[in-house]
Amino acid sequence: MTTEPTGRQRTPQRLGDRVFSGASTGAGVLILAVLAGVAAFLLVEAWPAVTAPAEDMPGGEGVALYVWPLLFGTLLSALLALAIAAPLSVAIALFITQYAHRRVATTLGYVIDLLAAVPSIIFGLWGVSQLAPLTVDPTGWLAENLGFIPLFAGPASSTGRTMLTVALVLAIMILPINTAVVREAFRQTPRLHEEASWALGATRSEMIRMSVLPFGRSAIIGGSMLGLGRALGETMAVAMVLSTSGGVTFNLISNGNPSTIAANIALQFPESTGIKVNALIASGLVLFAVTLAVNMTARAVINRRREFSGAN
């Protein structure tokens, strides 16, 4: 008499599989623990600045008014950089995957990947010594001819150390990240969809518009938000290039520019004591929250990308 098995028997795991699984789980838990520790540290150290009287804060107007101009400058510079880098990254990715010869595409891919490894201080030195002087004449022309637009109201800076220059430097810094993500997504476009477009008589540009871009849409969004996360936290390049005044303004070409949170911390922390240190940490807590939100949103967008049926 035979008996039916009551459940599916599980194959015992090998020792190496168990070790690897445990190490991976431990690494994930460690990352979460470190992230929670950083958040707890920032919250505890920032709390005295949150509860302190307004007159004790730098500027004498409270922690919210102290952080707001810095947050405005951070968001303004990062969003401007993203507006410049996102279209360029899509264009470069399309050229590498759809137009360039295989050898040219491989070389360009290596160059873009190497560009991501350049230290930010190098970009800062290049921006303040080379790029900033080159922007003096163009920004003067913008102030003279397009001064009615708030972004170019002027007067134009005589040094070129403006928010516009910072945006250009940040755009070049985040360009490799954006391009790498978008390039890999375009490479994974289902061959069947491309061939179907060709079979229907589409030109190359029409095939890209109907097959490649729809498939890579979520990657474009996710890569742009990952680049935005880096631009939000950039420190030395912004601190070296930007001439700050502390005010809130949309004027991109004048000497009066709002600073960013990361650059302000780097410049002010060595000389700060007491409640000023807590105020800087409070601004860091705001930057931590904004960057975490951006990165989580980007990860959610990337993970929700749906595979096309018949894409193999």
UniProtKB/TrEMBL annotation:
One of its GO terms (molecular function) is phosphate transmembrane transporter activity. It comes from the Bacteria. Keywords: Cell membrane, Membrane, Phosphate transport, Transmembrane, Transmembrane helix, Transport. Residues 71-298 form the ABC transmembrane type-1 domain. The keyword Transmembrane helix applies. It is a multi-pass membrane protein. Signal peptide: none annotated. Pfam families: BPD_transp_1. The chain crosses the membrane at residues 20-43, 63-96, 108-128, 162-182, 212-232, 277-298. One of its GO terms (cellular component) is plasma membrane. It is found in: Cell membrane. The keyword Transport applies. PROSITE patterns: ABC_TM1. GO terms for biological process: phosphate ion transport. Its main location: membrane. Belongs to the binding-protein-dependent transport system permease family. CysTW subfamily. Part of the binding-protein-dependent transport system for phosphate; probably responsible for the translocation of the substrate across the membrane. This is Phosphate transport system permease protein. The lineage of its organism: Bacteria, Bacillati, Actinomycetota, Actinomycetes, Kitasatosporales. The gene is pstC.
